[in-house]
Design brief:
alpha/beta, Rossmann fold, 5 helices, UspA, single chain, 155 residues, Rossmann-like_a/b/a_fold, 5 strands, five-stranded parallel β-sheet, Similar to universal stress protein, UspA family
Length: 155
């Protein structure tokens, strides 16, 4: 039996270059925790941060989805909330913040559309804090499984 050689491991510092925080407009508790962590990381590393929120079209009934006024109003509400998150991040000290609004299934839209365009090397999301079938938090496992970048789930 041969003697096992010690592992030759050198610890090096790891720095992210750009992060994306997924905000769930329907779950402010998990979003707030994830947002606080994202702002801390972005400020500490002095890196750009994207804030994404998705208009979940599956949450609309057939009559709402066919009414342009209802969809436009919901889109405006989410955009207004994104603006508040951008302002708060800037006040905290994050230098570069980009609001991003998508539509559809959150996990899929973030992985297939938002990440390829924004190109973050870290995605941060919350985990649901209240029962519902379609929250960003419920898509955390989807993001973890399919995102090409690192994913941090904040509880």
């Amino acid at each position: 039996m041969t003697e096992k050689q010690p592992l030759n491991i050198e610890v090096t510092s790891m720095h992210y270059q750009k992060l994306l925080i997924a905000i769930d407009d329907d779950d402010p508790t998990s979003s707030k925790r994830a947002f606080n962590y994202a702002c801390t990381v972005a400020k500490m590393y002095q890196i750009p941060m994207g804030i994404v929120s998705i208009l979940e079209t599956s949450d609309l009934n057939i009559y709402q989805s066919l009414s342009p006024n209802v969809v436009a109003k919901r889109r405006e509400e989410i955009a207004a909330d994104l603006d508040i998150f951008v302002q708060k991040a800037q006040e905290f000290g994050v230098q570069e913040v980009t609001p991003i609004l998508g539509e559809g299934n959150p996990g899929h839209v973030i992985v297939e559309e938002i990440i390829p365009e924004f190109k973050p090397d870290l995605v941060i999301c919350g985990s649901k804090t209240k029962p519902s079938k379609h929250l960003i938090g419920t898509h955390a496992s989807y993001l973890s499984k399919y995102a090409p970048s690192s994913v941090m789930v904040v509880r």
